[in-house]
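Notes on consecutive records. When two proteins share a document, each keeps its own sequence and its own token line. Never mix them. Below: protein one.
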Amino acid sequence: MLRFLALMVFAAAPLQAQMRLDTSLPSNRKTVEAFEDLWRRRDDKARRALECDIRPVPPSLGFDLRLWAGYNFSLPLTEFKGQKQARLSAVIRLQPLEPGGKPVYLGRRLTLSRIPEAPSKKLHMSAGGGFALGAGSYRASLLIGDSTGRSCAKSFTLKAKEPRGSVSQLARGEVSDASAGWKGFAAPAAGAEPRRVTVVMNAYPVTRRRHLAALSWRDQSTLMNVLGSLLSRGGYHSARVAAIDLLNRHVVYDEAQFGPGSFEALADALGSVNLATVDYETLAQGPTEHQFLESVVRRVSSEAAPGQIVFITPPTQPPGRAGARNEGVWEGLRRPAVLALLPRPVAEGSVIDVAKAAKGRVFSIYTPSDLASAVERIASGRQ
């Protein structure tokens, strides 16, 4: 039990997204040691088992030209009967096999709240984690446990192949987390005026699915690697990044000086978005989605020089209530741009409406080359 408590140590930090465990930190070293000890004893009959279903996600090319892989898992809520709240930790060890290399550990934590007193056997919770891989073969060892000392485990092999017609952004055998691989802004050239960008990200699922309770790890990684591509290729020298929960009319993240170290906090904010419930009063009385977006524009443009404003939005439905427009919010601002991810079949929704009201340019993004072309056009001012 003491070993399992050590595994839970990293969960004391505010970690929603899956991140690489820096073993230079004492708490992370204890987590890795606990993982290795529990992994060796995973077949021990005395181990308290946690019923779960783990499914690997094979590598596929992301918008940032990195190969993304991961895992999904589900647990029946009957496993937590009688608990008002449950904490889960997931730690995965990725061992490069070809080429060989040192193992990399990644971890995430989840908190289950509002567990029904008598949950149905049909009720499950689902989650997962993702990571980027360089070309090669990897052995993945995943351990999931709860705060009562129960755990489940699975080992599987991942084979990442170089994408046709392009080169992966990671070296062979390299493993990276959701920080999008961006290393920071370059300094402006001597005598050149610094370029700033303000990014407003719509925290909404990128991929279509039946139940939209939260953003999956794939949704989060897609949004963040699109952001990383914009910041790394756009020629900017500083950025403000805001993430919004449009359904609940809430700004979940706002960082005026966004940098490489900001991705973890952004990932946590995206992971905290709850799409399962929407306040009825908000739907009935407002503000409407358009009015909320206009308030966000006023908020981010309140600084002296917000620079180029770029929206990143997944596909959404047209709003039920449009409400009155206030096109004056764009006075004195540059025409915005919208990176519309995987529109079906055309880009629509409140973000598109508000940007078009300001004569903004909407770029439909289906492939990495679409994103690269859009970023180039935005950076050059050819919208």
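Protein two starts on the next line and is unrelated to protein one.
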Amino acid sequence: MTEQGEAQPAGRGAAEGAPSRAGTEIPRAERGPASTRVAVLGPGRIGRQIALAFALGGCPVVVLDLKPRPAGEAVAVFEDCCREIERDLRLMTEEEVVSAGDAAAALDRIRTSIAVEEVADCGFVQEALPEVIELKREVFRSLSGRLAPEAVIASTSSTISPSHLVEAVTGADRFLVVHWLNPAHIIPLVEVVPSPKTSEAAVARTLALLDGLGKVPVRCGDSPGFIGPRMQVLLMNEAARLVEEGVATAEDVDRAFKAGMGFRYASVGIFEFIDWGGVDVLYRASRYMANALGDPRFLPARSVEEKMERNELGPKTGRGFFDYAGEGRERFETEKVRALLRQLRRQREA
């Protein structure tokens, strides 16, 4: 990892003791669209993780700190950034997720800088600033005109609609939200959220780039919270209410979640489990809880009520949210049971 710009943080240059990239196997992604030069705007926690994800996929990355700081503070920020990235690479190597050679190569692909001119030759710019609309808009106004016309500009916002940011971008057709889940270098999912002005070409390039990194990009509509954060906000607040109401301690809620839903949903999707458990089970449980707790937020969704009316209850009726006609039920249930058993075996072997 090298550090550039006026701040010139004291540090390791190309990482002290890191083996040379020569002789290491270059990841598959580096030979495809992931060879794109990337700028990450913001050296905070999520920015560091995103930079590492791109570097592991073969992209040369520059992490830019655009916040005016005293020289000593700028040095400290970049040193902390370098330490955290090196630590995460060490942990990935120790857990045998990446080889030592690939870790060293990834580290060599990351630079830090305060020079805004660095964005000029980047094909993909990922903003990773705090969730402050005006701050993001200000940065987009100042930087988007410096970029090549074909460069894609992405915000990593977890909740802000791209429609609320796009007007600050020069070249609105190349702007979209690309939301990474923390920790970004580990979690496979990346949500891709175009605005109404985003071109299909920009979406396709972004999906291909993320796929080349080994991520699982999922396109979703422009709606507050997108997919993950919208579900997660409800879940987190409900967990907090359980503790507030004395139902369980925070420790026991976490233990129950990891051993139950966390275990299940690692192998079974939400809609897959609605079908497998039975749409009718969800419908009745929802109505009971809404009545017992006196809270309408537990009432079943309209689509669940419609499935009940059509007797589309899951594998047992041949259709739920998915189709199980013919041998579909047996195939689905066998696949999911095997997936859960494999997961149980891995957990026991750990």
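For the record: The first helix runs from residue 45 to 56.
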